[in-house]
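**Fold tokens**
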Amino acid sequence: MAAGRDNPQAALDVYENEAVASHNHGDILVYDDDWLTDFVANYKLKLQEKFGIRHFYGISQNAEIKETDNWYQPMLKLEQKVAKDQTLYPVARLHHLIFKKTKENLL
């Protein structure tokens, strides 16, 4: 965001947990992984997996090349390979956490 969209203030707002909005999706709520895991534990959900999404895709600002299969298919393969790499997880643009109901919740 800071470099790719030439907007360091927006990146700083996200970093400092200030209110952020998207033109396409409205308000963006940013949750810490640990806070979210603790919150859903109240509903007897347990963290099963976590994925980092968009490690590298957004680095290139060349929108034209992103529409070509010669660029997109290898980038997709790269993103899929690093999605579960926990050493790269912190630098992913998005974090996807998968929770599962515990047995106690099924009764």
About this structure: The longest strand covers residues 45-53. Residues 69-82 form the longest helix (14 residues). Residues 50 and 97 are 4 Å apart (CA to CA). The two ends are 45 Å apart (CA to CA).
